[in-house]
Structure formats: C-alpha cells, structure tokens
Write a structure and sequence with these properties.
Elements lengths: L12 H38 L6 H37 L14 H6 L7 H11 L1
Length: 132
C-alpha cells in the first residue's frame, strides 16, 4: 500500500519513506526509458540522414511520421517524469495525497493506481468536462 488509510490524519515517517521510494523508483524508470528513447531517436536520425537517396514522397512521409512518433514518445515520457517530480515535491512539502483543486484527501485507491495524481476524482472529472 502506498498511502496510509487515514491520509487526512498524516503519515508515519516509514509510510512517507515508502511512498518516496516508490515515486523515486518510477521516476528513475522513466528516466531510463527516456534515455533509451533518445538513443533510438538518434539512431533513427542517423539512418534517415544516410539513407535518403532515391526517396519518393511516400518514403519522405514515412520518415516524417516515424520522426514525429519518436518526438511524441519523448514528450510523453518527459511529461510523465515531470508528474513524478511534482509528486515527490508535494511529498516533501507535506501536500502529497491532497487534491490541488479542493484540498480534500485523494482516495487511497486512486493514489495506489495513479501515484502521481494531484486531484481527487471529482475535480479531475470537472476539469475534463471543462476541457471538452
């Protein structure tokens, strides 16, 4: 369990340490995933630069799509990693586990599934409806 059942009453140091270790481990995994994706992107660019002779529009389009996909993957990983950095910062501040919208405790089940969550389900649904 990542969070104590009584989030509103505070956590023990052991619980905070367990949460920190879990968040840091996921952040480290995302950092490694990002580094691997950067290497793959660099290899893709090298192949692309060295293999342009005889390309037609379809070849150019395919290469552009592959490059866009690689860049999208990099942005997604960086965004996810930033979420974990934010969660670690909130943990250090003592605000981890509380909704940034209404300040109510975020349900334990939500934090166990999505440890970097910053909002309760109600606030998240409200934001999504406004965005639609």
């Amino acid at each position: 369990m990542l969070v104590h059942d009584t989030v509103g009453t505070g956590r023990s140091q052991a619980e905070t340490d367990q949460i920190r270790l879990s968040l840091q481990a996921r952040h480290d995994e995302l950092t490694e995933e990002y580094q691997q994706a950067v290497q793959q992107s660099q290899v893709l660019r090298l192949v692309e630069v060295g293999d342009t002779a005889g390309d037609d529009q379809a070849d150019s389009g395919t290469k552009t799509a592959e490059r866009d996909t690689a860049q999208s993957l990099l942005r997604t990983i960086l965004d996810r990693r930033a979420q974990y950095e934010h969660a670690l910062a909130r943990l250090a501040e003592g605000t981890y586990g509380f909704c940034e919208g209404c300040t109510a405790p975020i349900p334990v089940e939500r934090l166990e599934i999505f440890p970097s969550a910053t909002t309760c389900v109600t606030c998240k649904q409200t934001r999504e409806r406004r965005a639609a």
